[in-house]
Amino acid sequence: MENYSEIKYLEAKRKVKQLKGFYTHATVYVLVNLFLIARKIYHGKSIFDIDIYWTALFWGIGLLVHGSSFFLPHFFLGKDWEEKKIRDLMDEELKK
To answer: What is the pTM of this model?
Structure first.
């Protein structure tokens, strides 16, 4: 039973680390894009010019993918896919 508790703790610790990574990514995204947009506006670009938003747009797509990997992990591979795959790999290792 103690081993099960330790596994759950390590899993929770891994998830917190992933969440921290996403929050860091989101914070850097906001700060860098605010700076880039403000700099382009300062140098004479119109706020309605689409050219000042390309970096934010494409990076935002990457941020959405990063967030979905944490908040929607079972969307593509099913609810218990990860645990099942771990058990399968451990079973294979025991057979060797």
So the answer is: 0.71
- The mean per-residue pLDDT over the stretch 45-58 comes to 92
20 token code pair: 């921290």
Which of 20, 23, 21, 41 minimizes the C-alpha distance to 31?
23
Helices (H), 43-80: 54-71, 74-77
Closest-CA residue to 59 (of 35, 92, 80): 35
Cα–Cα dist 49/33, whole Å: 15
Cβ neighbours around 60 below 10 Å, total: 13
Q: What's the Cα-to-Cα distance from 59 to each of 8, 15, 30, 47, 64, rounded to whole Å?
A: 33, 23, 10, 19, 9
